[in-house]
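thought: fold this chain, then report.
action: predict
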Amino acid sequence: MNKLIFVIILFSFLFQSNAKGSKGVHIQGIVKNSNEEYVVLSYEPRQRGNLNYDGHFSIGTRIDKKGSFKLQSEKISHSSYYTMRIKDKALYLILFDGDRLRIEIDLNNIDSSQFVLGKGAGKINVLNLQQFDSDLMFNAKCTLDTYRIRVDSLINAQLALLESIYKKDFNNETISKAYNREAISNIIVQTPLSESEYEFLKRMIFIQKFTIGVFPSYLCENNLSDSVEVDFSSINFNCFNEQEYKNIDNTNCWTFDASLDFILHIEYLKSLQKSATPVTYSNWNSNFDDYKKYNDWIALYLQQNFNSDVFDKYYADRLSWDMTLGFSSDESYKQYIKNCSNSKYLYRITNFKNLLENGLQNPDYNLSANQFALTPTKLDLLLKSFKGKPVYLVIWSAQYAGSTIIPELPSIIDFEKVYLGKIEVINICIDKANFKNLWAARIIDNSWKGHHYFLPSEGNDSIINMFDAKNIFSFCNGGATYTLIDKEGNLVNGVDAPIMLTKDSLTKYITPNR
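observation:
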């Protein structure tokens, strides 16, 4: 039955994809002070590791000797965040389907030098202005009232500036008195906003109002709240109404997804209060302890108050979040099949679930073979087999692969091609034994060919310490580490990732002794 569902979803997805004829995105880059670095364009979801439902995988290319590069993807999730990485620098881009961009940067001064030209560039340049770098962090000095006033003030200032840019009103005070008016004028002249960009940015600015929905949670966590019952009819919660929710018609851009969470928190608490459950600022967070009750309520509320795509993607993200972290998802998957109406979400999730269940048996990769299952003894023999030849070890965690490996995978594959015959690249996944299926799924899902091995983390602390690999189990900052073994067998931990490595830094490992 599952195979039949998968086949139906597959054909439906392929038919829809062909019918739409996606225009995709084209990026041409000019890089000053380049040394032929590698460039990667990766999808940037709100939750690391989640799957892209429009078929985009990380893509990359190498900057040529003249400092130029080109990136092209026909599969872009409209209005989603993407990251363009060069060395240790990251440019955050919100891309529309059909964007044609020319990006000029100086690697020695990337933050102040970047300027984007072409179709779709306006929205990117506007968001790079300091006025749109919203500082809405919470602090102990804020009350609910003062925080709302602060948010409203910021939104009003941003909306006024956005409107002046869109209308090309150079004489407006928001531009004429701005410290960076020259940069603003350049946007107006060289990359004027289209109507669709303007409307999108306006909604993106407005939804910052909903951050007030999570501020009481901060007060509760830090014991800065009291036992006063919450008055949801007060001015502080005015934005939480059906009319304002129309600003969220999709959650491709993860800032909209975050705002949706804030809305759901408030509306759930409203529903509790209506059912005679007292909601105070001091018990704010404890009302969400019953996860099943809250989750059941969310499903019904989303279906009744938002369009089907918002519902489908909300649960697709959470389901793929569980899957990519290796958590059990069978029951959630069964529920999702019943409720999801968009085949592109079902296709992507079903495909990955199929890899989790059958990837180890895939004959093209043969990852279940005994020779790819490491023990300390087998690892020692493996490394000794490369005696006299430099070895580059990619050591990663299947569970946290979304942190670093998956977004930068093209640079790893390119590195292996460039140094083929000069340096051996070995990929070793160290993780819990029950994540071995996740290891296989990640490899096959990304068509990651190469020398792959799996070492269970249980009972192998000595190996983890030998490679200084504890950090790969950190969700935010880990996922992978890199080790070099030189021609004499010396082990060097914590070397740069392939996207950072230069030819000069590798010379001592790949040049024969003199």
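thought: worth noting. Residues 6-21 have pLDDT under 50 and may be disordered.
final: tokens above.
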